[in-house]
């Protein structure tokens, strides 16, 4: 695929988002290991302070294709009762001439539901800011001096917050969250034309751990993402967990229309991608993961798939506590 066709493709994608005035939030194939990225109530789930790093390189081979990095850290404020979880997450998302950077502080209040402290109902809120940047130099205006296209790079900072609920037991979890609660505040990057805002997005996640033998477990999970503008996204994932140390999995990601959305183009291919995922726990506090996504749409002929790397490091406290296993 020549660079001219690549550029036209990316500009077309960006132009579509400008016309719609909304953009979908990011999504990771390894969302199970990056819970704070989809739910602020996840903060403190693993109790020990945990650092998570993720990098997603989408549609490799296409110039200016989406690329996302995120870094987060979360843990308990007080190990004595574990009622308060705190977290911080930073994200940079780039697509061709535009980029969105964000930083959120997260607070979760964790209600203890049993004597053994194996079940918790958590309520979380995230407060932060987003910076939207657009490099007008990468556009080729049809009309010279088009006021809707900036001459150089412009940016705008906007406040935002998110809310979530998360319930877990040793072998089951379910969570719901809503992001971009201030999405009606359009980001006016050029000073005279509203360009884009993050679409208000709802996440629903759930998963369970099913023992198959003494050394093998099955962990199915799903995630539904709804932004009320584009197709509803569904991610179905399953892992075989070997001795709690090696996770081998696959996922199927698709889109479907749940109700009448008049702004959607007809005839869209609803199938998105399939993924192969591998996670390795070097020890109880160090994990490294990799996933490869293969697009099933017509775009597959122009790119070499999507690569995603992730890493987590736990920092155990000085006073060890007896807690139920953290499989999610």
Task: Explain the overall architecture.
There is one protein chain. The chain has one helix at residues 3-20, and strands at 49-57, 67-76, 84-95, 98-112, 120-135, 153-169, 172-179, 201-208, 210-211, 216-226, 232-242, 246-256, 271-283, 286-295, 306-315. The protein contains one helix and 15 strands, in the order H-E-E-E-E-E-E-E-E-E-E-E-E-E-E-E. Strand 2 (67-76) and strand 3 (84-95) form a beta hairpin. It has 328 residues and is mainly β. Strands 1-2-3-4-5-6-7-8-10-11-12-13-14-15 form a 14-stranded antiparallel β-barrel. The protein has a single domain (3-315), classed as Porin.
Task: Itemize the secondary structure elements and their pairings.
Layout: H1 3-20, E1 49-57, E2 67-76, E3 84-95, E4 98-112, E5 120-135, E6 153-169, E7 172-179, E8 201-208, E9 210-211, E10 216-226, E11 232-242, E12 246-256, E13 271-283, E14 286-295, E15 306-315
Antiparallel strand pairs: 1-2, 1-15, 2-3, 3-4, 4-5, 5-6, 6-7, 7-8, 8-10, 9-10, 10-11, 11-12, 12-13, 13-14, 14-15
- Structural class comes to mainly beta
Average pLDDT: 82
Report the major sheet.
Answer: 14 strands, antiparallel, barrel
- The number of domains: 1
- CATH topology label: Porin
Q: What descriptive keywords fit this protein?
A:
14-stranded antiparallel β-barrel, 1 helix, mainly beta, globular, 328 residues, Porin, 50% strand, disordered N terminus
